[in-house]
Amino acid sequence: MASQEQLLAAGREAGRLAGEAHGRRDGACRSAAQTVAPAAYPLRPLTVLFVPQGFPAIDEGVADALRQHAQTVHVGHSSTMLAQAAELRPQLVLVMNGLHVFPPDHAEQIAAIRALGIRTAIWFADDPYFTRETARLAPLYDVVFTHELEAVPFYRASGAANAHYLPLGANPAVFHAKPVGQEYRSDVFFVGTGFWNRIRLLNEVLPALEGRKVVLAGGEWERLARYSRYKPFIRPGFMPVEETVNFYNGAKIVLNIHRTTEPGSDNHNDAGLRGASINPRTYEISACGTLQLTDIRDDLSQYYEPGRELDVFRTPAELTAKILHYLDREDERRRIAVLGMLRTMRDHAYAGRVGTLLDLAGC
Fold first, then answer.
1. Is 70 exceeded by the pLDDT of residue 294?
2. Does the domain formed by 44-169+350-360 have CATH 3.40.50.1970?
3. Is residue 15 pLDDT above 90, yes or no?
4. 95 - beta bridge partners?
5. What is the architecture of the domain spanning 182-347?
6. Domain locations along the chain
7. Which pLDDT score, from 0 to 100, does residue 348 have?
């Protein structure tokens, strides 16, 4: 049996090796990022009132992107957007998502804004999980954007003739590679709610990761079959964006498990739409220069090359095998992570998305 001194020495050596690996990853990301020139866009003679949804990871990225395109950008509030629009007289009111924190008079405010001759647009970011609500909201607006391919024909059939597919993205000012402290380091990290499809998957995967540092963040993880065993590694409740970025950067592997689209207690997908599009987390994880293992959505290959810029899994067994494979292959893990980061920086920042949005909105 090893003595306490030997165990301490082994721990110090493991820490030294882990620190060196993170240093190599940080250096590779820093060098690669310097090869990407920031995009520049001509300012449009345009005033926009932007109404956020209350989720900073997306809201701040879209607001920053709008400022790169529009001469004047005001950030409003869902409860007072009519009064603000009447005072500011923007050419466009852009509402982000329009769910959860929006007041009961949402529809009346939008109708009154349109009556002022102001163009309105909404960008749905939670499709297809709330079609019960979004089917009623979409026809209220002049232009509708959704990150979900399957939702476009649904909205058009619901009366929103001017509906468009527009994927989400990442805010590089927030989601980027950076060095982090030991407290953020892990072998495997996942942040999100413990929806039942995620619980079923991880119930099968976690037993094979005994002895590895796995960190789960979010709510509902008490649903896990061996919750008491994993409780010390769970960070319950909401995780601020800044903390999420730190944990992404500190992880060797970050999992991306899309929630189920089945109607039920976790969803309001009354229309039964199939989820075909990747979530914003796909872009945010890759922007941080960390290896991402994700389940597959139809449009994934339009935005990333699986096996080269991230990797994918179809079954619990495949996910388990790939986690164990990449944990033991630092160079391969780092190469894929850096390529995914570069793809995100070049092609998937919100500034590019917002330029497309303004074009489609006629601005």
1. yes
2. no
3. no
4. 51, 122
5. 3-Layer(aba) Sandwich (3.40)
6. 44-169+350-360, 182-347
7. 98
